[in-house]
Write a structure and sequence with these properties.
By secondary structure, the protein is an alpha+beta fold. The chain is built from 3 helices and 8 strands; from the N terminus they run ββββαββαββα.
Length: 160
Amino acid sequence: RRLIAHTRLTLSLLQSGWYQTTLIPKDTRPTTVPNGFFLGANVINITRQTARVLIMNIRVRFDDLNKVPEITREIERYLKNHAAVVQPPNRPIRVHLRDVQPDHGNIRVEAHSHITKKDLFLAANQEITLAVFEIVDRFSTGPAWPIGCYDGMKGSERYR
């Protein structure tokens, strides 16, 4: 069985014939598609992928913006020493302050993992995410809660 991804669908190939192909989506109901459909479709064989992408967006309080260089260095150091992360120059590891919003700063973390099996990748992603947030917690003075976001009702704030 091969996997086929099309517009957010992941399908398993059950049977490929001269005129039509039978696919099995997540709900396991077979779907028969005319082969002409694949002429204009962007079909990706995900069984040939060599890496999965780890992406995190981390909110940082204004009070902690001066600690961003230390935070990003420590996160990058952690990722460069993690066995599941593909190392440069094969794939980049990017950790940087992406932007500053009215109530917080955003650190963007991007890396690739050589683990392509979904369940194994999700476990590695969870481990890495928890470790990264532990690093942020070590350097920060607290969570970057949204502030000053009004829902239109006079004097009422959605977030505190």
